[in-house]
Amino acid sequence: MENKLEHPPVNFGKTGVLIINLGTPDSTSWFDIRKYLKEFLSDRRVIEVNPIIWQVILNVFILTFRPSKTAKAYKEIWMKDKNISPLLHYTQKQAEKLSNLMSKKNLIIDYAMRYGNPSIRSKIASLHEMGCENLIILPLYPQYAAATTATVCDEVYRTLMKMRWQPSLKIVPHYESDPLYIDALVNSLKKKIKEINWKPDLILASYHGIPQKYFDKGDPYHCYCHKTTRLISEKFTSVEIKTTFQSRFGPEKWLQPYTDKTLESLPKEGKKNVLAICPGFSSDCVETLEEIQIQGKESFLESGGENFDMVPCLNDNEDHLVLLESLIQNNI
């Protein structure tokens, strides 16, 4: 009698889309913050120093003292009613609204975080189990950098390396000059200016910084940031826009001018009414809400400034969803 092998039942025929942001701790507790920082700061794309020396510095010094400072910052902006960070909230909303906007039988849209939860590994496994033979990865970083976009790709590749039946893969490229992205930023600027009762002397376009040595090694991030600002300026001409870089960490030289130092010096230059926008962040997070809206504002006013405000990130607004839908559709 002939034995027929029957393949185990599997789901198939679907396309999965994974939008991926940086990450967030699970809570504001010291232990959760420490766990998140350990994963983030152990990434050799993020910290390019001798790994043996760095692990000593990280575990003996940084992870002993920094979690308390970081926890304080997260507590300032934590969404207590939902008990999640704003970044997680808005990323969830983006995935949810995109799913409704792109409602198709064989298309599944989900989200993941590069660091923390939900992990890239767990979400790719989940999409695979649901029958996604095709995988589209959308890193939510408009301006490419090795420490952001590339490390997302690294983690995706590491996950696929352990899979027997790999899906086909597409990575959505950086979109710093996409007309829909620029239009969304310009619209958000115009909306905010209508809401405030003063005219800005300057608009500060603040991007997350990277060490200067990464730029010297060929990272294109700096150029992409300036390109975005230039394209915004071409469509929004009523107020000067200046590019700065925030969130520097450690003693090394980072991309300049620094956002915090610029905010301290602007009142002395006669720029006493400043509006900030953070084009490189797809969702409001600790870097925008605490570092700019709270710390930056306080520093600016203490230095002699009169009015300061920040344009919200694109978050889950309609313009942003139209952009993200377009980026996905171009890769299906």
Tell me the major beta sheet: 4 strands, parallel
Overall body shape: globular
CATH topology of the largest domain: Rossmann fold
Q: Can you name the CATH architecture of the largest domain?
A: 3-Layer(aba) Sandwich
Proportion of residues in β-strands = 15-25%
Overall domain count: 2
- According to DSSP, the number of beta strands is 8
**Helix/strand class:** alpha/beta
The pLDDT mean sits at: 96
User: What is the CATH domain class of the largest domain?
Assistant: Alpha Beta
Radius of gyration: 21 Å
Characterize this entry briefly.
The chain is α/β, with parallel strands linked by helices.
Overview of the molecule:
This protein has helices at residues 30-41, 51-77, 86-101, 120-129, 146-161, 179-195, 212-216, 221-235, 259-265, 286-302, 318-329, and strands at residues 14-24, 107-116, 132-139, 168-171, 202-208, 241-246, 273-277, 307-310. 46% of the residues lie in helices and 17% in strands. Strand 3 (132-139), helix 5 and strand 4 (168-171) form a beta-alpha-beta unit. It has two domains: 14-175 and 319-329, Rossmann fold; 179-310, Rossmann fold, CATH 3.40.50. The relative contact order is 0.14. With 332 residues, the protein is of the alpha/beta class.
